[in-house]
Amino acid sequence: MSYNISIQKTETSNLDKLDFNNIPLGTTFTDHMFICDYDNGEWVNPRIIPMGMIPTHPAAMALHYGQAIFEGMKATVDSDGNPMLFRAEDNANRLNFSADRMGMPNIPTELFVDGLKQLVDLDRQWIPPIDGSALYLRPFMYADEPFIGMRAATHYKFIIMASPAGPFFSKRIKLWAEKKFIRAAQGGTGEAKAAGNYAAAIRPTELAKAKGYDQVLWLDAVEHKYIQEVGTMNIFFKIDDKFITPELDGCVLDGITRKSVIALLKDRGFEVTERKITIDEIKEASKNGILKEAFGTGTAVGIAYIQEIGLDGESIHVSHDSPVGIEINQRLNDIKTGKVEDKFDWMTKVAKQLVD
Ligand code: COI
């Protein structure tokens, strides 16, 4: 089924204010956004309108009870300037997985992908044509029904906005292995991309930063010994010549970059195991000189290298001699810009329909 998306183009584009070589992080938005309403059990009125404020009733249920979920994804251009989306259907599936957990309606994959394609087509000139840069896309859904009682809302909005993003050059980061606060417990919402998971991480992250660390390394809720995630990313370790990453045990987000990195590492001939990993095992590997590299993976950052982990007053040192992750990150970027073959069929081309 193809959706009839109405289009209202902006009269005043902000494109001429954008400097592709100096994009402020997360504060620049393209000229348009996609919106759709969930009403009476169905998604209605899909539309692209000029980017701007949305009137919100103060009793909108998302503001009180947190029915709010989101995705992060990227559009890039090939060397001829043709836009492409990375693993768009995987993001649609994950949004619906999150929606199920949070008692929210599913959005049809075709509507999700059509909305993305048409928005990216219309705002195609906002995609930075620079290696490592991209148009960051933020599809999200929230309960906008005004109601004071606690139950699943009956009215929702699904919105996609787009924000150009420069290359993410991260220094190697320092992690704080957190033993007081937790991110996720079995049966909770940790595997959903729910806004509340991020809210709960803000204070512990501030405290870690005050101690001189960049991000929190989340441990399990019961014994505080099994590694889950880092900050807003999944995590990988290389011990000797093998990669390991925490298994998807219900507390870990099924990251799209995570699964792409697993595929690329395997394709490159590395063994990658998804399993339970204790922080003590990582400490031991570091002591024995076999902790060869560690990195976080996420859509926004790609791959972020880890320098050390603070644990109970001690510091776990991570080597960085010939990191494989740099090569994998480059291959990801090359797939996203059509420089190398898309052998996993991850890219979706965006046809030119709405511009000119
Ligand atoms: C992403 O990497 O896309 C995320 O969703 C993390 C976000 C908090 C920036």
TrEMBL record:
Keywords: Amino-acid biosynthesis, Aminotransferase, Branched-chain amino acid biosynthesis, Pyridoxal phosphate, Transferase
CDD domains: BCAT_beta_family
Catalytic activity: L-leucine + 2-oxoglutarate = 4-methyl-2-oxopentanoate + L-glutamate; L-isoleucine + 2-oxoglutarate = (S)-3-methyl-2-oxopentanoate + L-glutamate; L-valine + 2-oxoglutarate = 3-methyl-2-oxobutanoate + L-glutamate
Cofactor annotation: pyridoxal 5'-phosphate
EC number, UniProt record: 2.6.1.42
GO BP: any one term: L-valine biosynthetic process
EC primary class: transferase
A GO term for molecular function: branched-chain-amino-acid transaminase activity
A Pfam family per the record: Aminotran_4
Family designation: Belongs to the class-IV pyridoxal-phosphate-dependent aminotransferase family.
Role noted for this protein: Acts on leucine, isoleucine and valine.
Protein name (database record): Branched-chain-amino-acid aminotransferase
